[in-house]
Structure formats: C-alpha cells, structure tokens
Design brief:
alpha+beta; 45% helix; 3 helices
Amino acid sequence: MTGGASISFRALGTTAIVCAAPGRALHEAHAVVLRELDEIDRACSRFRSDSELSRLNRAGGTQVVGERLCEAIAV
C-alpha cells in the first residue's frame, strides 16, 4: 500500500492483512478485524469443539443458532 501502513498476521489457517490509508488508525482497524475473526471462529469453526457449528452438529440439527452462524450458512 503506497503511503499507508499494514499489519499481516495468521488467522483462520491463512494470512490476513489489514491495511490503512495514511493518517488512519491501523491498530484500531486491526483490533476490529481480530474481534470479527474471533466471532466467526467461535460460531463457524469445524475445528473447535466449543464452536456453535460443532454444538449444532452434536445436537443433530435441533438447536437454535445465532446470527453469525445463520449468516454464514446463508452465504
């Protein structure tokens, strides 16, 4: 990114990059992305036994799910 700043980090089995234009709050943007990825991981991960998806699979599909998992299923 020309004139801006970026942070790269491991997330969800890949590399994520947060970029910010000059004068923008890169660290604030990074924190927002980390929170979003954490929410997605907690809801949708098939690798976490405590994720909402894993609980749904164990329940045999008879469980109310949250908005994040519903959104992911719809997509």
